[in-house]
């Protein structure tokens, strides 16, 4: 009996999530009356604004991932190696983006870095892009840090570092050629989550007036009927593709190196 209710709960949950997706997908195929077609998808993909905003968000995601890796991997490594007592405080700081709304963060950025401030980042396109990239990195920080920290738990950081230093390796070599390859799966997991966050984020990009994918989805949804459903299916497919890549990388990646102890 317990097994029956367990499977019933699973079936209910699947229907709760799958039925709206099926309905949205079916609606997106009904742009041509009387038949199913991909006209809505063709219009979305042929729209120059879709191409512009999608490529812009992908570019911002790449820069955000690079910045996040350069920030998080050395920080998590140093905390685990030299500052274990500071770990609870670092984890608390990395969790703050989950409780502070994005609109509060972006208004703080605008207040601090407007054209009349000591660092007027919003006064130029490059400066605004940098500010938006920092905002994306802030939003993805909890996920990137948790992924990297989990990866570092699977290896003996202290022993590997001591072994590398005994062979004359510097800190850059240790991080780039020893630590990073061993936590690559964790880094890629955080990177794919970051990509999904950047592709769907609306608040920061809209308030900073940048041509990102999130504001484009909102604008299209306010003015069209079938195209927003098609765009939502595309965005959902991107998110699930990222999740599938995380699982694929985790399965195909080699096991981390384990030092041999005497």
TrEMBL record:
<feature type="transmembrane region" description="Helical">
    <location>
        <begin position="229"/>
        <end position="250"/>
    </location>
</feature>
<feature type="domain" description="ABC transmembrane type-1">
    <location>
        <begin position="54"/>
        <end position="247"/>
    </location>
</feature>
<keyword id="KW-1003">Cell membrane</keyword>
<keyword id="KW-0812">Transmembrane</keyword>
<dbReference type="InterPro" id="IPR000515">
    <property type="entry name" value="MetI-like"/>
</dbReference>
<dbReference type="GO" id="GO:0005886">
    <property type="term" value="C:plasma membrane"/>
</dbReference>
<keyword id="KW-0997">Cell inner membrane</keyword>
<protein>
    <submittedName>
        <fullName>Spermidine/putrescine ABC transporter permease</fullName>
    </submittedName>
</protein>
<feature type="transmembrane region" description="Helical">
    <location>
        <begin position="5"/>
        <end position="23"/>
    </location>
</feature>
<feature type="transmembrane region" description="Helical">
    <location>
        <begin position="54"/>
        <end position="77"/>
    </location>
</feature>
<dbReference type="GO" id="GO:0055085">
    <property type="term" value="P:transmembrane transport"/>
</dbReference>
<dbReference type="InterPro" id="IPR035906">
    <property type="entry name" value="MetI-like_sf"/>
</dbReference>
<feature type="transmembrane region" description="Helical">
    <location>
        <begin position="89"/>
        <end position="110"/>
    </location>
</feature>
<keyword id="KW-0472">Membrane</keyword>
<keyword id="KW-1133">Transmembrane helix</keyword>
<keyword id="KW-0813">Transport</keyword>
<feature type="transmembrane region" description="Helical">
    <location>
        <begin position="186"/>
        <end position="208"/>
    </location>
</feature>
């Amino acid at each position: 009996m317990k097994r029956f209710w367990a499977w019933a709960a699973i079936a209910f949950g699947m229907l709760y999530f799958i039925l709206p997706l099926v309905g949205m997908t079916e609606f997106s195929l009904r742009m041509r009356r009387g038949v199913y077609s991909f006209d809505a998808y063709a219009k979305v993909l042929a729209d120059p604004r879709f191409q512009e905003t999608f490529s812009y968000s992908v570019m911002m995601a790449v820069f955000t991932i690079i910045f996040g890796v350069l920030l998080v991997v050395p920080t998590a490594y140093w905390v685990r190696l030299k500052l274990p007592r500071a770990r609870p405080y670092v984890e608390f700081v990395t969790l703050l983006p989950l409780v502070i709304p994005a609109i509060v963060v972006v208004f703080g950025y605008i207040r601090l870095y407007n054209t009349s401030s000591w660092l007027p980042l919003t006064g130029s396109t490059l400066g605004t892009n940098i500010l938006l990239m920092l905002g994306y990195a802030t939003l993805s920080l909890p996920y990137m840090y948790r992924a990297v920290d989990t990866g570092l738990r699977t290896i003996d950081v202290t022993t590997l570092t001591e072994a590398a230093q005994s062979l004359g390796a510097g800190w850059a070599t240790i991080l780039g050629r020893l630590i990073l390859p061993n936590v690559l799966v964790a880094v890629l997991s955080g990177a794919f989550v970051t990509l999904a966050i950047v592709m769907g984020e609306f608040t920061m990009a809209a308030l900073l007036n940048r041509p990102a994918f999130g504001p484009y989805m909102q604008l299209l949804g306010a003015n069209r009927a079938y195209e927003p459903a098609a765009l939502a299916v595309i965005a959902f497919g991107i998110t699930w593709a990222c999740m599938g890549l995380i699982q694929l990388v985790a399965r195909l990646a080699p096991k981390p190196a384990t030092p041999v102890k005497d």
